[in-house]
Amino acid sequence: MRFREHRCPCDHPVVVRFPDGRGTEGVVINVSQGGARLARVSGLTPGITLRLTLDPGGVPRDAQVRWVHSGYAGLRFAQRLDSRTMAIIRKSVSHTATRTAPAWNLHLRELR
Questions:
Q1: End-to-end CA distance of the chain
Q2: Tens digits of per-residue pLDDT, 59-111?
Q3: What are 28-38's pLDDT values in tens digits?
Q4: For residues 109 and 24, what is the distance between their CA atoms, to the nearest angstrom?
Q5: How far is the CA of 23 from the CAs of 20, 49, 80, in angstroms?
Q6: Cα–Cα distance measured from residue 77 to residue 64, given in angstroms and rounded to the nearest whole number
Q7: How many CB atoms lie within 10 A of CB 36?
Q8: Which residues, in sequence order, are bridge partners of residue 63?
Q9: Residues 58, 52, 32, CA angle at the centre, nearest 5°?
Q10: How many helices (H) and strands (E) does the chain have?
Q11: Contact predicate 93/9, CB 8 Å
């Protein structure tokens, strides 16, 4: 049995580029060195490869869409994130998210 890496909650804005060149903004709501959960981006289908800019002035990173469900998408990074990038993303945790109980969707694969 293969165990998934621990995901750290965050609220990190990203720039998303589709294979056809169009771009949009989204939010990474949890992250590990190998993948992330993306929200607020429509038109995603499993199997496509996106280019994500995770930090201003940073290097765009390729990520494959693994699943799409209820407005969220699971991503797998082509190359694992380094510790510097992880630290930047983890610092973007929303302080209001811990005060109120979120409406968790327990049907998402990564929460099982």
A1: 14
A2: 899 999 999 999 999 999 999 999 888 888 888 765 444 444 455 555 555 54
A3: 999 999 999 99
A4: 25
A5: 9, 13, 23
A6: 6
A7: 26
A8: 50, 77
A9: 90
A10: 1, 6
A11: yes
110: helix, strand or coil:
helix
Q: In residues, how long is the chain?
A: 112
Q: Six-digit token pair at 10?
A: 């965050």
**Beta-bridge partners for 17:** 23, 51
* Residue 73 structure tokens: 């998408």
Contact of 75 with 37, CB cutoff 8 Å = yes
DSSP 54: -
**How many other C-beta atoms can be found within 10 angstroms of the C-beta atom of residue 64?**
15
- Amino acid letter, 107: H
